[in-house]
Amino acid sequence: MSASLPGDSDQVVWLDSVSRVYGGRRNPVVALDRVTLGFRRHAFTAVMGPSGSGKSTCLHCAAGLDRPTSGSVVLDGQELGGLSEKALTKLRRSRVGFVFQAFNLLPALTVEQNVALPWRLAGRRPKRAAVNTVLDQVGLADRRHHRPGELSGGQQQRVAIARALITRPAVIFADEPTGALDTRNALEILALLHESVRHDSQTVVMVTHNPVAAAEADCVVFLADGRVAGELHDPSPQAVAERLTHLGAWADTPAARQPGQVRG
User: Has this prediction a pTM greater than 0.85?
Assistant: First the structure.
């Protein structure tokens, strides 16, 4: 079933009153509470919040990795709720790229083979020219025949980014992509993500706890206690850190008890 995005059609992902509750009736844990949130195409959006705020659950629901308890998710014009697991897997492979803190590379495959893996999983023959292009883009053309164990952490994350880019997805979801890296490598990875948006018109949604990382984004969306707690455009590390310190106080206000809406 296809659906157009509510509100602004420029949103590549739209969560409409999404809730996600874990556990049984006696001990429910509300990870997301009626979240209404859009992510703009061709933009770099960071999602931040304290531990337990629901930011990773938000990303997983937006990417079709987890199903909401209630509400709906539209990804690149497709409503996810009515899709079978098979159809959802097919959509993720073709329209979504993933970059995680754990690089999730297959150790027995070369860099080139890891990058081409999304095509092979989809039953398609890898295009050598496209693989060469993304390896050049991430600065690993001379490492194409190496295996992950022969690379540094920063290089492995570059491979993961190349793998996410290879299908030209509608959106790349990055969950703490710099969490396992030192400062220099983290900044290089953020620069690559930023470049993919600026020069290749990609869309990146990144969950992070790091104000410096979040400041690389065009917009930061804040979550607190499973609800949208505001947004910050053209952020600086100082402004992000300042906003984070007030999220606990915000969660006690009347506004926090209303469904949030951000079009970042």
Answer: yes
